[in-house]
Write a structure and sequence with these properties.
The chain is an alpha+beta fold. Helices cover about 20% and strands about 30% of the residues. It is globular and about 80 Å long.
Length: about 170
């Protein structure tokens, strides 16, 4: 095989390899991957008004409370914005793919909420009462955990947020 033919084959292999890598990178970057469900919580499909999402049941005292799960970047960003009510759910559990210090805002939310932050092991590390802010994020306060967290539970004021997240027994 001539040098020119070898060079043509090498170039073709390089172009095909680059194209394959580009396709894989675009696919990987475009996915809205889900954070894994923590603490052995059993997940199931959510009902209205959160059809298309997932739900888990948490032990709160002697009660079992259903919460909708925000486990993708899009779901975490949307949160409860625009939600008229929680339906059969006691709140929304935000599941991060790793420990984070991401702040919460009530931009576009018209009812007060309480956010409680938890470690990856489910231990409570803090909470904040959040006021409604139907305006855009630029004009709304932000709420931060005092430490890095993996999970956050948003509930209506007065609802009990457990000291430790546990699955229902």
């Amino acid at each position: 095989m001539s040098t020119r033919a070898r060079l043509a084959v090498a170039c073709a292999i390089a172009v095909l390899s680059a194209a394959g890598i580009a396709i894989l990178a675009v696919h990987w970057l475009s996915r809205d991957s889900r954070a894994s469900t923590p603490l052995g919580l059993h997940e199931s499909p959510a009902a209205a008004p959160f059809a298309g999402s997932r739900e888990v049941s948490l032990s709160v005292g002697t009660h079992c409370v259903r919460v909708v799960v925000a486990d993708t970047e899009a779901a975490r960003e949307r949160g409860l914005r625009g939600a008229v009510g929680l339906g059969p759910y006691g709140g929304m559990l935000f599941v991060q793919p790793g420990d984070t210090d991401t702040a919460f805002t009530m931009a576009g939310v018209t009812t007060p909420l309480v956010v409680t932050w938890y470690t990856a092991g489910g231990s409570r590390i803090g909470a904040a009462r959040m006021a409604p802010c139907p305006r855009d994020a630029e004009h709304c306060p932000v709420y931060r955990s005092r430490g890095r967290y993996r999970l956050a539970l948003e509930t209506p004021p007065g609802a009990a947020a457990p000291a430790h997240l546990l699955p229902c027994s």
